[in-house]
Amino acid sequence: MICIEKLRYRSLAIDYLSIRRGITSLIGPNGSGKTTLLKLCAGITVPDVGSITVEKKNPRETDIGWVNEFPDRNFLFDIPEDEIVSPLRFQHIQPDEIDRRKAEIRQRLGLDHFPDRSIRELSGGEKVLVALAGAMITNPRVLILDEFDSHIDARTTKRIKRVLSESQIPFILHSTQDMENAKESDHIIFLENNRIRHSGTPEIVFSGLKETPYYPLSWKWRA
Q1: Alpha carbon distance 151, 125 (integer Å)
Q2: What is the pLDDT of residues 19-48, one digit of tens each?
Q3: Is 57 in the same domain as 74?
Q4: Cβ distance 183 to 202 under 8 Å?
Q5: 82 and 116 in contact (C-beta within 8 Å)?
Q6: Are residues 189 and 135 both part of a single domain?
Q7: Where would I find the H helices in 141-190?
Q8: Domain end position, chosen among 122, 140, 158
Q9: Given this model, what pLDDT does residue 125 score?
Q10: CA dist 7 to 10, 39, 152, 189, Å?
Q11: For residues 67-95, b (16+ Cβ closer than 10 Å) or e, as one string?
Q12: What residue numbers bound the domain in which 121 lies?
């Protein structure tokens, strides 16, 4: 369980929130606090007041994978392969184990035939895949993705969603502006004006958003 209690950070205020295992989507208007909340859960920033714990641990004591909304901000290295395996090298993992995990994550994300060129030459979608591979290669307890789907096409989004659903990562949090993507999550958090307005299953949250732009179109057609 990820637990947030009496949290205050700049204008974001959350009295209490619990996030269960599974895939959780954060939705809401731009500037509503989604990225801020994700950064707090990742331990990138710390609250001014209150607490966040991941399975009773501080986020900074937890193995967390992070993918930035802006692909170029994810990278330390110029070569995709170096970027993907860098988390393992930082942990001083043995070369044989690094090679094994690299081959596994490349196969899972469809990177076996990935172009051998500088990260600077990759498309936005290709950069997302490299960042995601690097974030997942350690098999983190928490994977946090800030609007990863805004830079990739529908086919790649579908493939990544399948990989995420089949992964053994206990907590996956991601923000999105795609309600068709969000409705397939286990849980949804709707933020507005730096407050949590709705939290629960897709059916519960979207039932309160029927007259807003945040209701899935496919559900409107279904109705």
Answers
A1: 5
A2: 999 999 999 999 999 999 999 999 999 999
A3: no
A4: yes
A5: no
A6: no
A7: 154-166, 179-182
A8: 140
A9: 83
A10: 10, 13, 33, 16
A11: bbbebeebbeeeebeebbbbbbeeeebee
A12: 63-140
